[in-house]
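Project standup — Tuesday

K.O.: blocked on the structure for the chain from last sprint. Re-posting the sequence here as requested.
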Amino acid sequence: MSDKLVLDLETKKTFEEVGGDFHKDKLEVSVCGVYSYERNQFRAFREEEFAELGEWLKAASLIIGFNSKSFDFAVLQPYFKFKLSKLPHLDVLEEVYHALGHRLKLESLAQATLGEGKSGSGLDAIWYFKNGDWESLIKYCLDDVRVTRDVYEYGKSHGHLWYENLGRRETIPIRWGNDANVKEQIITAYRNGEQVEIEYLKTETDQRGLRIIDIKAVKDSQIQAFCHANQTMRFFQIDKIFKVMPLGKQEHFQTKLF
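H.V.: unblocked you, prediction finished:
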């Protein structure tokens, strides 16, 4: 099996308890959360299941994380005899640093890119572990996995991420988006007169979800389309479209591109 995995973990101890951030190998893992693309499954591995986790990791064609090369893999390495650093790995934070020259928190990156952030902090996860609240711990960890996956997918779909820079929302170019980006897919569908289903990010009035639309006009940063969900014409911001899935020809369509 060759799978693509998104990974995040939580620790049993704080840096203060192990003598600082030079001792990541002593933090110990309470739970390791993984999303498997091939299985389309979120899975939380506890310590007694790490042998199986190791098999998942060794079989993966790519492992995706956030600050995972310098943190997650350093914390996880004592549990395995094989070298985690030898596995195919995409660290989203490393890509952000490459583009900007400085680091960002996953929370701020997700808020600017997805309109939503993390559900808590790593200290919350340690509290859950020390109090035996495995349900909350696993939910928190897998939520971080989901956010990391969605940030990665947004970059793949758009060719960039977003961040706040002195109160302005600016793009971060990324290097893993090799396919046609969302705007290119929208323009192609419009020119072909194709109805599309889009996954739209959360706004003040909408929850993220699927919309079937007929595109009527394409502007620089938005499209005008007939939305079948509410049977009205409306505008959609291109940078809030997460995925585009062509559904075939519209019943009636125009060929003139605005």
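K.O.: great, moving the ticket to review. Residues 72 and 105 are 15 Å apart (CA to CA). The first strand starts at residue 3 and ends at 11.
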